Amino acid sequence: MNFDYYISSSTDFVSLDEATFINIIKHPDLTVTSEEKVLNAILMFGMRTKELFRWEMVDELLVNSEPELLFGERLQSVYDLLPFVRFPLLPYPLLEKLQKSNISSQIPVFQNLVIEAINFVKCGQARLENEENVRFQHRRSSYRELQYICDGDNQGVMYFAGTSYGEHPWVNPLLAERKTITITASSPHSRYTDPKALVSRTYQGTCYAGPRLENGQICSWWMVDLGQDHQLMCNYYTLRQDGSKAFPRSWNFQGSLDGKNWTNLSLHENDGTVCKPGQFASWSITGPNALLPFRYFRVVLTRPTVDATNPWNFSICYLELYGFFL
After folding, report:
1. Which residues belong to any copy of the F5/8 type C domain (predicted)?
2. Which of the ends of the chain has fewer CB neighbours closer than 10 A, N or C?
3. 3-state class of 84 per DSSP?
4. CA distance linking residue 152 with residue 296, whole number of Å
5. What average pLDDT does range 95-105 have in this prediction?
6. Domain coordinates of the chain in residue numbers?
């Protein structure tokens, strides 16, 4: 179950009964990107709020209120649900903030769980008595966060794939003995339509996907397949223009589970960001679709570039994806 998407796309979950919500929270295959999301959902459930709330907002409300007034008849449910948050997996600076919060000072069970987590982190993972306690274990379906830092960094999925997901130093993933990803283009492989250029650490001056007809429409695209064992909830992506001046202005960034049915993650219409040969450009993915996991991703040109000679050549020489990787 993709918990992040479930709680972000709708707040209807706050109307569930406690037993059903507990069954969701404790499900062994619950997919979460952060235990903070679980905490926020529990507090929202307790307040029956139809608005998206973070724990900081609840903390502010408790400056002039009390848990009994804020949560009403669901206060006991909050007490019962909080132990399902795996606090020891939260970043230590966040645990320190939670310890100093009004929530901690007014809800003893919350305070005890946070202190327990802080002590566990301080003592390290060697506390054997906690090994069987589910609160101290990573969820089976947790995602690894690959966070965008800057253009051309080594934090994204393509770079990670080049290390066989952390097993060895980087090599071009399309040249590795065990290929972890596949990249294809709308036009046949050639000297200047070379998928391995997109995941190389070396700049290539000429690299493009040529046009083709799909459903009666001209388009050009580059597509990434992460493989049957992996998915990504993409929240950022980076392109790099090749050495030409065929700057794209209208294109879509899409995700798919099967490589056939596509979901738009980012739509670009008359986007003038790319304006120099060799330029990097990056965009964030926002909204509920950023919390949907996909195996396939593609950038597809939807209108001609500014180049009058070959207007449908999608001329990029680098592609990187970021987000929560499974």
Report:
1. 182-303
2. N
3. helix
4. 21
5. 96
6. 3-136, 145-325
